[in-house]
Amino acid sequence: MSITDEREEVIDFTQNYTQPDPSSFVGKAGMMVDPAGAVIAAQTGTIQASHVAEIGATLLEFSNPEETLGAVRDGEADAVLADKSFLAPYVEEDAELDFVAEDILLGGGIGMGFRESDAELRGKFDAAIQSMKDDGSLNALIEKWEVGATF
Known about the structure:
Layout: H1 5-8, E1 12-13, E2 23-28, E3 39-43, H2 47-54, E4 58-62, H3 65-73, E5 79-83, H4 84-93, E6 97-99, E7 113-114, H5 119-135, H6 137-145
Parallel strand pairs: 3-4, 3-5
Antiparallel strand pairs: 1-7, 2-5, 2-6
């Protein structure tokens, strides 16, 4: 789960075990988009949707990420904001889509969420994550599965 300040208010996170995938803006090819003044589509409940609301852009929320791309294709939105790894195959396959603004990093990495009352259990997971960082096995798994940045 992406570690954010809002989420940390209600649950506790382990230390991050990977960095977040950059978030990217995709719109119609040949256009550049100023995200702050645009209509941006994002999946409901994501850190991307929160970011769009924070920068004051007009947010169109959808229940799944494919619908956000449909909003761009149909002209309802200027761009979609989502994980770059999700968007890249669509951009590669569809000549009408392209990256239209700078990538951004959102959140404090990826971690596991626990009830605040589960400090002991969270501590065990933190110790396991740290051990895997220390011995290099976490990086080996990340590289094998191409999950994101290494430590």
